[in-house]
Amino acid sequence: MADRDTRKGETYIREEIIRFAESLYARHDISLGRAFGAPSREGMPEIQVAPLEGRFLGMLCSLLAVRKAVEVGTLAGYSAIHMARGMPSGSSLWTLEKDPNHARVARENIAWANLEERVTVLEGEALASLGGLEEEAPFDAVFLDADKGRYDRYAAWAADHLRPGGLLLADNAFFFGRLLEEEPEAQAMRRFHRLVADRFEATCIPTPDGLVVAIRKE
Ligand code: SAH
Ligand code: MG
Question: DSSP secondary structure string, 164-175?
Answer without folding.
Answer: EEEEEEEE-TTG
